[in-house]
Write a structure and sequence with these properties.
This protein has nine helices and eight strands. The radius of gyration is 22 Å and the shape is elongated. By secondary structure, it is of the alpha+beta class.
Length: 305
């Protein structure tokens, strides 16, 4: 068992508790509740699961619902799978530590399993959800997380440390913007706290606005990177200076760009909440979306206006 397997499940089940708060002890609020398992077909449920917990875990005294960031059915949680991952004496599927440990326990099963073996991994994921499409999606994320682990090698990273570190570089004289770097970072942080909700799929527009432009002059983020003069592109370099623009290939036409704030953090749209800006670890674009990091560049908008 490796961490990426649990992360792959968590990504598909709840987007890693996207939009929720996770306390220091792992409690997730508000609680994540699936649809009533009444066989209606909603959410993919096709069989009836009548209530087994008197609504204690899922708030539903008629039907069971999948609960928590790893979406356990109450009857499964109340069996041997339910775990106390944070050592507080309580087995709570709404706690990220308990749920993650329970996922590992459930995937491993009762016999010897080696989830580094592709066939055994797929069998284990199908035990979690008997859907071939589900298993393929989860394993795809597992592979992306495995790649993220490998990408840290040689960059001075250790478990729990940032994937990106601060570099230092002055912008060339050709880089001129209505707003300074410090003002751009401050504007982005304010937008993350109290800004609007109109940033869905508007990553390039957002970084242009941080530097005071009304528009970037380029349609897609990935094009903005490759249209940069070669001297301004820093391909795959993981030490961007604060204020730089960071780019990823997401597997979709547009790609993605975010503003680097320093300390391993970026301001990015859609990563936690669709349409909103959030401050997150820069590595989340790879670990959450499975994207490929392209590199960073100065805030250069020659066609901006």
């Amino acid at each position: 068992m490796r961490w990426s397997v649990i992360a792959g499940i968590g990504k598909v089940e709840s987007g890693h508790a996207a939009g929720r708060r996770v306390s220091a002890n792992g409690d997730v609020t508000p609680r994540i509740l699936g649809v009533p398992l009444n066989g209606s077909g909603a959410g993919g449920n096709t069989s009836v699961h009548s209530d087994t917990d008197n609504g204690t875990l899922d708030g539903d005294a008629v039907f069971d619902r999948a609960v928590g960031p790893m979406q356990f059915i109450p009857s499964t949680w109340q069996g041997p799978s339910g775990q106390d991952g944070n050592g507080d004496g309580i087995r709570d599927p709404h706690n990220i530590f308990d749920a993650a440990q329970a996922t590992a326990f459930y995937l491993c099963g009762t016999g010897h399993n080696n989830l580094n073996d592709d066939a055994q991994l797929r069998k284990a994921v199908l035990r979690y959800n008997q859907s071939g499409t589900y298993a393929t999606e989860v394993i795809g994320h597992v592979r992306a997380y495995d790649q993220l682990s490998r990408s840290g090698v040689g960059h001075g990273n250790s478990p729990g440390s940032p994937v990106f570190h601060d570099g230092s570089a002055g912008w060339p004289t050709s880089v001129r913007n209505p707003r300074s770097t410090a003002a751009a970072i401050a504007w982005a942080r304010r937008e993350a706290v109290s800004g609007g909700r109109n940033w869905y799929r508007a990553c390039l527009a957002f970084v242009a606005r941080t530097y005071g432009w009304s528009y970037s002059g380029v349609q897609y983020a990935v094009d903005h990177y490759w249209q940069m003069p070669a001297a301004l592109r820093h391909d795959r370099d993981r030490r961007p200076p604060p204020g730089s623009l960071m780019y990823w290939d997401t597997g979709q036409r547009a790609g993605h760009v975010a503003l680097y704030l320093g300390g391993g953090k970026i301001a990015s749209n859609d990563i936690r909440r669709k349409g909103y800006i959030d401050v997150v670890d820069a590595g989340d674009i790879e670990s959450v979306w499975g994207a490929t990091y392209l590199g960073w560049a100065p805030p250069y908008f020659p066609q901006g206006g």
